[in-house]
Write a structure and sequence with these properties.
The protein is an alpha+beta fold. Helices cover about 20% and strands about 45% of the residues. Strands 2-3-4-1-5-8-7-6 form an 8-stranded mixed β-sheet. The protein is globular.
Length: about 120
């Protein structure tokens, strides 16, 4: 199941300056604030700042579609003509992220949250 785009991650080379800018833009303090990731929540929308994004090949903001099964979704997209860009990996707390590229080279981010139990 695809729940749509709820997460957008911005790469940053100056985490403190970006954090201040987004706090002003969004009118709230971050809900996650560490040297390796800063995250803001506005309703269901999550905005993240990744200080390693550029080194990881991120050239600009990346949208992430929230899906219930990242591996199955990636395989279906690959079967439909996409190519693998980043295999799913745990980024903390069981949250998995990965991505594919479409035929034009656009990155499609995928995110699977752990099932609440």
């Amino acid at each position: 199941m695809n729940e749509g785009v709820w997460t957008i991650i911005y790469p940053t080379t100056n985490l403190e300056a970006s954090k201040a800018l987004f706090a002003t833009l969004l009118g709230s303090d971050p809900i996650a604030d560490s040297p390796y990731y800063v995250g803001f929540q506005v309703g269901k929308q999550h905005i993240g700042l990744n200080p390693h994004g550029h080194r990881e090949g991120q050239s600009g903001p990346q949208a992430f579609y929230h899906v219930s099964d990242i591996k199955a979704t990636m395989q279906a997209l690959i079967d439909g003509g996409a190519t693998s860009n980043a295999e799913p990996r745990d980024v903390g707390g069981g949250r998995l992220v990965g991505s594919v590229k479409d035929a034009d080279g656009n990155v499609i981010g995928l995110l699977e949250d752990p099932v609440a139990g």
